[in-house]
Amino acid sequence: MTAQSDPNILNDLSSFVQELTTNIEPHLIELRRDIHAHPETGFDVERTAGVVARELESLGIEHQTGVGRTGVVGLIKGGRPGPTLIIRADMDALPIEEQTGLAFASLHTGKMHACGHDLHTATLIGIGKVLKEVLSQSF
């Protein structure tokens, strides 16, 4: 069945994704704040790469570490032939002193996530979770 033969599929899929994203939002906020508090610069992102790898592992997403030295690549295979989707995020922080006073501010002097890579990384974990769950359904 396709969206063309049953227009309700898109409504069902939309509702499913909405509920799933609402449910995982607290974890993603916690994950983003953890990454924000532990910034790593340049290619020295071993802790962050480990966090990403553990998240992918917990989601049952096939992954490879050490790509391009510290990169992590997750692979979610669809059940049918079709286009390939590639999504990426940077994990590194900047050599800047954080002065935000946030509860989850950088714990490392002279380093902070001032460019949003902490958010990008957490968001991609969320996208991975959503894609994995959607593929397990019969939409």
From TrEMBL:
<keyword id="KW-0378">Hydrolase</keyword>
<dbReference type="Pfam" id="PF01546">
    <property type="entry name" value="Peptidase_M20"/>
</dbReference>
<dbReference type="InterPro" id="IPR017439">
    <property type="entry name" value="Amidohydrolase"/>
</dbReference>
<dbReference type="GO" id="GO:0016787">
    <property type="term" value="F:hydrolase activity"/>
</dbReference>
<protein>
    <submittedName>
        <fullName>Amidohydrolase</fullName>
    </submittedName>
</protein>
<dbReference type="InterPro" id="IPR002933">
    <property type="entry name" value="Peptidase_M20"/>
</dbReference>
